[in-house]
Each structure stands twice: as C-alpha cells, then as structure tokens.
Amino acid sequence: MADAVKGFVLKQVAGQGASDPLPSYMADSGAWVRALEYAGSLNAIYPLVYAVQQAPWKDALPHPVRLALAEELRRQQTLTGAIRLEARRVASVLARANVPALLVGDLDLALRFYPDAGLRPVEAVEILVTPETHFEALRALGIEGYRAASAAMAERPGGLRRDHSTPIVYLTLGLGPAGAIQAGEGPELWERSSPGAYAGMAHELRAMAPEDVFVHVIRHAVRERAMDSPVWINDAHFVAENGAGLDWDRVSARISAAGLQAAAWMLLGVAERDRGTAIPDSFRARLRSELGVYRKWRLSRFKGGAESLFASDGPVGLTSRHLA
C-alpha cells in the first residue's frame, strides 16, 4: 500500500494521472495523510495539490480530504503570492538605485518556463547582483527596511527580510552554496542575460539566458540529488520544452565546459522516459561522443535496455579495447 501511494503521488506530480480513475486505495483519508507526508518529503506538496484540483475525480474524495487539500492549496497560493510581491518590491528598489539584478532560482523557473507558475514550489526570492554593486544593493534595501534574516543565515548567507512576516530574499553573488557561477563565468552570464522578461516587475530586472538556466538546473539537480524529487525532473523538462529560443548547441558547449555530461545524461534520460521530453538528436550525439564507451555502458545499465539514451552502445561485456 505504501509503495502504491508513493507511485500515485509521483504520477500526479509528473502531470500524468489527471485523466486516470481514482485508485480505490486513495479513497481512504489515511492514504491521503501518507500521500501529503510523502509529497512534503519531496518538496512537492503544491504540485500534488494542484494536480488533484484539475482531476475529474476530485469531488469523489472524502469530505475531510477535500477540505484539507483546499486549505493546503490556499496556503501555498498565499505564500506564492507573497513571494511574487516581494520580488516586485525588491526589483523596484534595486532599479531605483541603478543596481543591475538578475532573478534566479525557483521563482525564475516558475515564471518563465512552467505552463502554470503554480506547478513549481517557490520558497524564497533569489536575486543575483555583481560584487561591485553588492554594498549599494544592501544599502538600498536597508533603507526600505530589509534586515538580515538570522534564522536563515546558518543554512545560507545573504538572507534578508523586510519584517518577520515576509518571505526571505537572498541577495547573493553566486547561485547557491555549490557556486553555480564558476570563476570567470560571471561577466558572460550578465552579457547573455536580458531585461523585461517578467510581467509586472521592473523592466530593468534581468533574466538569465535559457541555456544558462538549463546548466544551472543540471548542476542544482546534482547537488540536491535529482532522483530524490520529481520537481527537479520537472525543471529539466519544462526548461527543455518551454525555453524560447533554447540553443541546444550552446547548451552542449556549456555542459561540456562545466563537466556535467554524465549528470545531463542521467537527468534528461529520466525526463525523456518519464515526461516525454524532446531531446534533439544532435545533442544526444554530442553527449554520446563525449562520455566514452565505458562510461556510456555503465550509465546505460542504470536505466537498462531500449530505455537508455545509449542503449545501442552498451556491450554485453567489455574488453581492454573498450576502455582505451
């Protein structure tokens, strides 16, 4: 039963179960308690509740379950609304101070790549500024009442709050603790970014090029162990499918430069299998050539058979010539 509930959650979060009939085991309130607990462990409560609200069987759920899910949806929508409002406020403050700023992270993904921003859990506003303007950004936000969010500082530096009730704003010089912006990459990242991507926010707020977002998603998935959450798979799928003007040759070059070929294969292989993500043949061929025969064979065994991107290259046994 526990595995069946988990499978149900994963299918809903992947957007694959809306037209299916409700399984009999999910008619029990206790099953929904387990489903929400499991979704919470995946950071996927919002996608689960959102999917349920679109399902034709939602009215057949037990009344207490419907009430609990509706309340959870309202809570998540309130949080998301507060985060968007905070992002608009911060973007305006920095624009008035003439501080260049990039919106990055979960909110950027939700607003630019997901078909509905409600499908992507967002917990904070992440703004990237340059080292040269960091002090000025802090000064401008300080005048507006933003102070260090002490509760968040132990996990990640740079957290700011306007008061105790507002979402955390991360004003950072890099993307995440693993440093998604590598040494020497910063200027190029800014040069490739563009303004005016976010409706309702200051025009000056910049957005990363889709290719850079794609590489960031892959690096983030490595750091956060992509297989632990369907949310990271969704990120890769929606950036690949909805990245307007996504240049796969540039994606290939940046993945190669970052040494993320194996990570890209694993993440996109799962996205292709479970989400139907379209992977261009030219991109697949470049990864195949760069990974090498032995690594391709070892990686293909994780997925097996025809489901592997590199199934045609996987020898039954390897000899010394394969390893050369």
DSSP strand tally? 7
**Ranges with pLDDT <50 over ≥5 residues?**
175-184, 303-324
- Oligomeric organization of the protein chains: single chain
Outline the biggest β-sheet: 7 strands, mixed
- Average of the residue pLDDT scores: 80
What's the gyration radius in Å?
21 Å
Q: What class would the helix/strand composition place it in?
A: alpha/beta
Write down the overall geometry: globular
The number of helical runs is: 15
Order of helices and strands: HHHHEHEHEHEEHEEHHHHHHH
Which strands sit side by side, in order, in the main sheet? Answer: 3-4-5-2-1-7-6
What fraction, in percent, of the residue positions are helical?
Answer: 40-55%
Termini Cα gap:
48 Å
- Percentage of β-strand residues: 5-15%
Detail the topology: elements first, then pairings:
Elements: H1 2-13, H2 29-41, H3 45-54, H4 63-96, E1 102-104, H5 106-112, E2 125-128, H6 134-143, E3 147-148, H7 150-153, E4 159-161, E5 169-172, H8 186-192, E6 194-195, E7 206-207, H9 210-224, H10 230-242, H11 248-258, H12 261-275, H13 281-291, H14 293-303, H15 320-323
Parallel strand pairs: 1-7, 2-5
Antiparallel strand pairs: 1-2, 3-4, 4-5, 6-7
Helix pairs in contact: 1-2, 1-3, 3-4, 9-10, 9-11, 10-12, 11-13, 12-13
